[in-house]
Specification:
13 helices; alpha/beta; single chain
Amino acid sequence: MSNEGVALGSILTHHARRSPSGAALILGDVRVGYGELDARANRRARLLAAHGVGHGDFVTVALPNGLDFYETVFAIWKLGAVPNIVSAKLARPEMDAILDIVRPRLLVGVPPEPGVPAVAGDRGALERYSSDPLPEAVSPHWKAMTSGGSTGRPKVIVDAMPARWNPEEGFLLQRPGDVILNPGPLYHNAPFHCINMGLFVGATIVEMGKFDALRALQLIEAHRVDWVTLVPTMMHRIWRLGPDVLSGFALPSLRVMLHMAAPCAAWLKEAWIGWLGSERVWEYYGTTEGIGSTMISGADWLAHRGSVGRVREGYELKILDEAGRERPVGEVGEIYFRPRGGAGSTYHYLGSTPRRVGEWESPGDLGCVDEDGYLYLSDRRNDLIISGGANIYPAEVEAALDAHPAVRTSAAIGLPDEEWGARVHAIVQPVEGAALDEAELLAFVAGRLARFKLPKSVEFTAEPLRDEAGKVRRAALRDARLGEAARQAAPS
């Protein structure tokens, strides 16, 4: 192993040699060893090479979670190419926009239209290709993740790290040989990053395919899972199983439950700490761009309730106002990070430009720090609702709404108001089969929010408001309602 680590195209071979019987993946009743996954990825790499994929090329992967997905990503690394991960369910306009930005050598999945160079994700054509090892190659960028951002305009975040990793170096409290549950969609950065990092250190990945609250607990117990990352939406669904169900799961093997990717309501975080204990509940806040991150244990969170932690080693953090001046302790401003290597050292964009002030870069979030340097998030800068001159953070309103036992999830957006400039409009997805009316819900929320933050209107919907990673596109929800209002106001 070089000082720079093992090439990702060879890392399956590395673990197969050290632990020939070690399982890389568990998918239902199927166990796939490191040697078998390596051989499958070799075949698939040769298939991709036959379609022209070579060193430094982008390959767009539009596959659901499953064995084909894992094989394909490692096959791309074996060729020294760069995996660009997208949802297999992307609408055609979004897929077209991403392909136009990336210009990949190949798409793995169903092409949006004829003429796009593509291969299917199935293994029908693989048998004629050899499973023998390939010459070592190192991708210049280990991943290129796709983000719609809060505006819905696609951008691609090309990671600056070459495709190498030290197989003894665990990521975010992972340890070599851990059993790790993946409950999330691999086209999102958090599960893609964390789950592949687990494979880099020889972990066994228990792949759910699609999240189900009860099944997640059953898999953790059945496979003695050590480490899992959840998003608050998943935490909420598990907690809603109720005390009778949760009391049946002690989860003794679980060392780390790490949540990330979206703000977590304080009451929900506190509930999980009460259930699992403060030593097992962790939170991570960071960016796909890798410009900075924070982390906090459950014990530290109880001492700094609501915080997402202090900046991690290798990064610096500042809170700046709109003029680029540093905000005092305790006052909200825009969050800016600086990585040790300086601006632009961790990634570059395709299809977008960074928001920088000198060497400092913002993820677009608002927050403040306390006197001990702990960061507290407020909300996305673009989602802030200003009503009557007062700042209202949608995440705070949503946390109050989601605390109601009949609410599955919610989104708070600002709509135009002649008197206030903007009013809070709540979109609520009730729990299936639950009876919920506006007056009762607002009375419940009134006990948790200041009066000026209360929703002025409530809309109930059966449609999911958040994706599988717990993210909500408030801008898209707002635009849809503004467009509908404009259509209704137009003369017939």
